[in-house]
Design brief:
Length: 151
Amino acid sequence: MFTLVTATSANAHYVYEHVETWSNTDSSKCVYVRSEVSHGSRGGYTQSRVLAADDWGPTLTCIWPWERPAGYLATRYSYYKKTSSGWSLCRSIGWKYNTSTSNVLRASRDFGVYPPCGGGYYATRAWGSVYYSGEWRGTDSVWSGSHYIEP
């Protein structure tokens, strides 16, 4: 009996950073931003995500959903490729806003089979904000870290 065994590279690997970018003075309201890069469908994937949370309940930590009305959550991303002279912008989107009440908003793109700017190292810079008390809160960017996408 003959058995043929083959191996392929695993494409499930992803790199991300998840950071609290704002909290009010008593830390009862918080904003978290996640920035992610991965293989996606082989040609790369990018995601930015903003999460609004509060400390409702006995834990007194910012882990509970903080539902925000339409237009009160915003996120955007820039997708970079490493070049010989540093990080170069490959793709970017403008601000996207929630269209219904929610505590989370994602913006993502799967680039299919081919990396949009050729093979190499890619990274995502994500922004996320929550409108609260007349101001946008948590507008600092978060860098995902880098990930190699094969050509």
